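HOLO CASE FILE
Compound: zinc ion
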Amino acid sequence: MQLRSTSQPLNCSVCNDEITDIGYFAATVSKDEYKPNPQDAVCNACGFNQIGMMGCAPELADVTDFDSDSDSGSDQTLEQTLLHVRMTDNGISVISDKQ
Ligand SMILES: [Zn+2]
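Model generated. Tokens follow.
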């Protein structure tokens, strides 16, 4: 599964810092690639300390619940996953995902 590249830097939706090493973000699963949702990105520190239980990785719902305009709820038919990613010189590499 390939990750569609994002040209913009990823910023944490909790602390607003740019994610430079390891982070999490939600992505929409499409045919054979992930379409990232950069607005739902969370840095490693916030993922563990602010969202997830102490010492546990966040769940997808923990990240996507930060959407303030998710009341409509009718257009969320696409499958989503939470990607655990590492920033590299060549872009973003996916460490793991969970749905
Ligand atoms: Zn953060």
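CASE NOTES: The chain has one domain: 2-68+76-98. The mean pLDDT is 79.
CLOSED: yes
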